[in-house]
UniProtKB/TrEMBL annotation:
<feature type="domain" description="Prohead serine protease">
    <location>
        <begin position="14"/>
        <end position="157"/>
    </location>
</feature>
<dbReference type="GO" id="GO:0006508">
    <property type="term" value="P:proteolysis"/>
</dbReference>
<dbReference type="InterPro" id="IPR054613">
    <property type="entry name" value="Peptidase_S78_dom"/>
</dbReference>
<dbReference type="Pfam" id="PF04586">
    <property type="entry name" value="Peptidase_S78"/>
</dbReference>
<protein>
    <submittedName>
        <fullName>Phage head maturation protease</fullName>
    </submittedName>
</protein>
<keyword id="KW-0378">Hydrolase</keyword>
<keyword id="KW-0645">Protease</keyword>
<dbReference type="GO" id="GO:0008233">
    <property type="term" value="F:peptidase activity"/>
</dbReference>
<keyword id="KW-1188">Viral release from host cell</keyword>
<dbReference type="InterPro" id="IPR006433">
    <property type="entry name" value="Prohead_protease"/>
</dbReference>
Amino acid sequence: MKTERRALAMEIRANGRKLEGYAATFNNPADIGGIFMETIAPGAFAASLRARRDILALVDHDPGRVLARTRSGTLRLAEDTKGLAFSLDVPDTSAGRDVLALAERGDVGGMSFGFTAVDEHRDGDRRELRGVDLHEISIVLAWPAYDGTIVQARSLQSAAPHRAYAERALKLLELSR
């Protein structure tokens, strides 16, 4: 099974030295590089969360820039009716200070998550993720894969895309290799 990465419309807000928001939202269709449309079903993260595996919060999917982890309690994840909610304690490291400063300014691109699909339904060019093995969530500094994905400190706002959707999707696919 191949690890995949996705970014979805979500919100993130700074709350002191914490970042809070959604790493993924349910039933929000996303065009994956013009190849297929994908949605995440409610409950898709439930098994991963019940397994109490160590899930990381990273910067741009880079394991060299760990922000928090569930094992230490510095990353908290939960499913609610909207999606995969998170709260993380921002470390006093260069990566943590940079992410917090960028989030407060509204300069962060979005959120993403790394996963392996364990239960999916395909119907032509449509894919629904019904169960995933969650590996990590990531703050994406530049181009999230999905249109409308944005990170803002303290609020959810719409923003114009930085680049055409296809360019963002291709960039994310290149990073995942």
